[in-house]
Structure formats: C-alpha cells, structure tokens
Amino acid sequence: MNIIFMSNNLAQAKSLSHLQVTLIIAGLMLMPLLLMLVFILPHGDIKQEGVKALLPPQLKFSLNPQKHVDAYALELGELQARILRLDAQSARLAKLAGEKEVTIKNNPNLKHLQNLQPGSGGPLVRSAPLSEAELKKAMDELMQAVDGRDDYLSELESKLLQQSVLKDTLPNSSPVAAAYNSSSYGWRIDPFTGTRAFHEGLDFIAAVGTPIHAAAGGIVIFADQTPDYGKIIKIDHGSGIETRYAHASKLLVNVGDRVEKGQVISLVGSTGRSTGAHLHYEIRINGEPLDPRKYLQANAG
Length: 301
Known about the structure:
Layout: E1 3-6, E2 13-16, H1 18-40, H2 43-49, H3 57-62, H4 65-97, H5 132-169, E3 186-189, E4 196-199, E5 202-205, E6 211-213, E7 218-226, E8 230-238, E9 241-251, E10 258-259, E11 264-268, E12 278-285, E13 288-290, H6 292-300
Antiparallel strand pairs: 1-2, 3-4, 5-12, 6-11, 7-8, 7-10, 8-9, 9-11, 9-12, 12-13
C-alpha cells in the first residue's frame, strides 16, 4: 500500500511506502505511553539525581563514590572489632597454654578501638578522612593481621591439645588404692639373697584381688608371666614412657589392647619372686627406670 501526498499547486507528489506508514502509526500509538511514564515517575528523584534515577542500583552505586568509601569504612570498622575479639581470645588461650602473649601490630594509620561495647561497630579511621585507595590498603593490612591472629590461635590450640594428650598419657596417678613403701625404690637389701641390690620400682602393699589401675592411657605391649615379675603387664604410653605392673594374681587385658587412664588391668597377687601380696610398679623412659614417687608427688601437689 502506498499513500500519495499532493501539494496545493499540484506541482509535486510524494508517496510513502508501507513500512514508513507502519512506523508512523506505531509512533503515534506509543506517544500516550511515553507521556504516562513521564507523569508517573517521581519528579523528586529525577530532579535530585537526574539520569541516575533511571539506572539500576548497581550502576547508581558506581556513580556515587562517597557511598563506595562509606562501605569500605564500615567494613574496616568491622575488621577492627573482629581483631579485638581475636586478641581477647588469644590472651585467654595463651594464659591456659602457659605461653607469653604475642602482640601483633596493626596499621599505624588507624586508631585502636577504645572501650568496645558488645555489638558495637562502625568505621574508626584517622581524624582526616581516608581516601578510597587508603581504605583499600588499610583493609588489606587488617586482613593480614586477622590471618596472623588466626595462625596464632591455631598454634595455641595445637599446644593445648598436646598438653591435654600429655596429661592423659603421663603416668602420674596411683595404680592401686593403697599406700606404697616410700623406701622401696633404689638401693636396698634383697629379701631373698640378703645382699645389697637396686630395686627399680615402688611396692604397694595390698590384699590379693585388689584392682590395679593403668596409671595412664596407652597400649598393652606385654601381658604374661615371667620368673621374676610373675604375672606382669607392660603399657607403652608413647614418647618412650612405659609402666610395669608385676606380681598380679590375674591379668585382665591382652597385648595390643588400648587402655585408658584409671582402667582396671589386673588384680594384686604374689606371683613370681615375691614374699607376699603386693604390687610392684615401675616407670621407665627409653628402658631406664625412674623413681615413680616424682610423678605421684607431682600429681598430689
């Protein structure tokens, strides 16, 4: 379809193609819609922000550098608050671990938080405002400080765990609920030969059948009878520490068993080279006998 326009003097005729006619009609139909949008949009936003009022939120943010800086400053304050909490936690754990507290220096351009109240936050910067670049640098430094504190806390946690494990594996508890002969460890007169000999353990006088407890947690490496020790149990506690429980009337654990501190492992008897019912108890480190009284007295203190 073509539309022909004629001037008054009929000197020249103009015609419009079908496509041109369609575009003109579409424009006339869209005009009311555009007018409606103009009247519906808030005039205040357009007046205050101009073109930004018509932009998506993410583009608005990029066009407002002050908001960007404020966001950095807020995150900076939160990082500083987190560092204070980590410092307080580090101090408590260091005290428990018996370690000297390590002080990690922060960015000197930033003030330290003072009198922090629970739940408080916000940016804490120099009296002169920081630029966006300075805030980014400060944030990077604070993140490094946070990472350093995390590593320090991990070290403290590891030391506390080692202390806890050592506490459970150190033979410092009495193996039997009975008094020991304080003069039984060391040089003495052998009751069988009448000659001077070195006694490598403590003797606990107790009735036959009295429970014998593991002085610390470990692995049973020997549970059998020998001519001298009679029925004996040997427990490996790690780090070269070994305990021995001799002259038992009955063994209650086997080689390879894992035992806990305080667990009943045998019963008092008088088997082997013995003059009467008692427990012969030894502590050895790398095969060398130690005086068990030092461990028992340390635990009592």
